[in-house]
Amino acid sequence: MVNPELITLLTLIAIIFAVWLLGFIIKLYTKRLKIAPETVNGINLLILLFQIVMILVIASIIYEVDSSAILGMSALFGTAIGFAIAVVVSNIVAGLYLITVRPFGIGDLIKLKETEGIVLEIGLNYTRLLQLDQTIVSIPNKNLLDTNLINCSIQVNDIADRAKQGFEIGFQSLMDELSAMQEKLGIRDVFADEILGGKEIARYPFTLQLKLNVINPAISIGTVNTRIKGLFDKWEDKLSYRPHFFYNKHIFRQDTTIIMIADQPQQILDVYPEFIEDFYITIFEELQMEVKNN
Amino acid sequence: MIEEILNVIQKSWKLVMFFVLLVSIFIFQRFIQSTVKKAANENRIPADVVNGIIVLIRFGSAIGVLYSAVYFLEFGESASISLSLFLGSIVSFASMYTIQNFVSGIYIVITRPFKVNDFVKIGNSEGVVTEISLNYTSILNFEGILELIPNKRILNSTFINYDQKIKDPNKKNQRLEWTEKIKSTLNEEEVTRYSFIWGAPLIDYKEIKSKLNTVCEKYESIFGYKPEYFPFTINHRLEFCFVLSSNQPITILKYKTNFLDDIVELFH
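The joint structure predicted for all components is written out below.
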């Protein structure tokens, strides 16, 4: 007469061996597949976890463990794993939130604390931006929910609404340009019209610091004003909207905020380096060799 | 008389067993500790492992004592359940951070935001990824030092992957047959396009450009692509954004500092 406990023990050992063998074969197979080493690490860990869970489940079935014990154990493991997975899931939830609330859309030019660029993709984990230097930066969605954000892409209607409240920098000239466009196209009302009313433009603000005392005597603000005016006349033709500027605080250097306006965000990214170049050569005219020689 | 003694023994049998177990656990623990220390002295076990093993043994014996007390002294089933609940919740909360790193590691391996040998910037660290393990991602930085970044931090930080797939410029036609499309994706070469910012002094723009051009031309043969630059912003200097491209991320790691040294030398 064989002891029934011995039989259950033997079956358990046989099953453990089978599970181990299965994992071993899968590992052997993945090795042959020549997958990247980091993937192999992940697969091995997953196999191990799977094996442990399977052995536990089978053992509890064979030994008819009290269901409340299993419940307690799974609750404990669940807490640990649940808290751990929260890191990953929070990004996915944040992604869904961004897609639903739409603080920005794909193709918008946005500015964040450290980065700025055109939104290429709002994924479930990361949002990707195309930066000025054409590199693609990935920002965890969770961080995007947690930071100040400037969306430079703006609807003309929204600008008009704000202008009604009495404040919108450069609104009047923008309206002049739009009405000129309207006359040209022969459209009656800018805002009633679907083409122009739903129109989106990109207004990109950035600050340059002018070291006006780089030469002696220093460049006066009056001179800078005329030079910027001349420069903007040229860029108005290029971008079809006139850029705006105003002075900010002066600590050693004169901070100057410039607002570039263009139909497409991509246009701003394309012409920005050329604009800086032009700006530098025009404002610091005295530094340039040709002027010196004359 | 004998019966009485037997009776007492039978009654206190479990108590005796408990003490026997306590002593045996103590002896066992001592034995293993001395063996481990001996092995460490003979350099068979690395020194940093010894402490870990000893701590584990002590914890294990403490838990053994607790459970044997519950079992032999007959505290009842509810005591054992609450004890395991107590220990279990301690262990699960304590292991949360470790598990988070594991989960993040698995997540990185599955979503593959970057792979080994990519040039990346994660938070403030830049370099070539040398390994993605389940706990840490190691990066070889410009100082030639391996930097270990916990996977959990990677998941929470902004990163740039400087490696970009550039399709064969000769095949710009979008309406390809799908077989050719697959072929072209296979032909994609990966180029590392690393960018950084450096400020030039406020001098003649043409002079700046000619100086930068000479350095860029010098490094064209080293990187395989001509380094590019464009004016980025103006402050107390005129800041330029430089873009170094190469087929090998290691080349950029090696020569970026030399490149910048050469530029600085020309200006100062």
